[in-house]
Amino acid sequence: MMCYKGTVKRGFAETCSLTCPILDHFFRGGLPCGSITELTGEASASKTQVCLQLLLNCQLPRSLGGLDGSALYIYTEGEPALDRLRELATMIPYRLDPSSTLSLPANLDLMNNVFLETGFEDGSQLLARLHRLRPSLERRGPRRIRLLVVDSIACLFRDLLGANTDAKKNKQEGQKNTSSSPTDSGGVDDDKKAAHLVGDPPSIDSLSDRTELLFQISSLLRKYADEFNLVVVVTNQIMDAVGGNGAAAGHTGGLLLHSSGREVIPALGLAWANCINTRVFLSKETIGARGATKVVERGPPGAGLQRAIDAGAATVPDFAPQLRHMQIVFSPMLPQGKCAYVVEKTGVRGVHPSAVQAAPELNSN
Question: Once rounded to an integer, what is the mean pLDDT over residues 98-112?
């Protein structure tokens, strides 16, 4: 089955700001409406942190980079925790320039405009739920849905995660098992979640059926993005690049992708890569043989965090945050590039290259 292609109206498309000048510059204004943006990376790479920030930002007035709409958050694994989303909601005024906060509607309740869908066991349930969303998406008004987030698509297709590398792993290492309708508002922090593959690889027939189901889901997401001018964001996971040939996989834009000191590739294969518009790779920096973590030697906190500290809404952190990177792997609208960022109490913040230094290597003893 072919994926729904639709049209990507870059140049005239609205965008949803990340409320950070450095990140907005990196994305040429923000994430675009009318297309699918994938955030892929390992667990704790801050995929959900970015998603939560977008859930709130899309509700802001257009004058502040928002879409004057509401957001739908489809969370596919575990019990969602609302604490971080609530915390980020209270931090929104500090992320904005002080002169801009006057533009915030006095009665804007950011938590009431995030609709949460949970309770998925497999891809079939996700597809059925997506079909039932159409009446909600068709509603017009000042707070219609403008952002749809699926976090994550990969956890519902764990058999496909392993299928792309099982043959290579078995050849090189021998056969082995590896364990390792919207009514509510909320969010979730997935920094500790990961996909663990257990048991034998699925059969060819099963893989064919699951791949077809994945295509149907992506086709419907593309149709919704195009028809309702939505920002659609999906999160994906990564796998080790077996044999060190990740750049030859066909869905890394010819790039060698590294996270936490190892070469990786996005999950779900080339077929899925052809069903998304933009792939953004989120990674954590490490240096040294033992993976000593790079940090940001940034002097004072970011401007937003400093405003929160001055207002008594936050405290000065005891240490510099871990450095992470966003990397454009492929996109019809953006050039390949990389941007450093950190996660603070006030949210995700881009970091200028001049502010990045390598921390001393940790003692390996």
Answer: 79
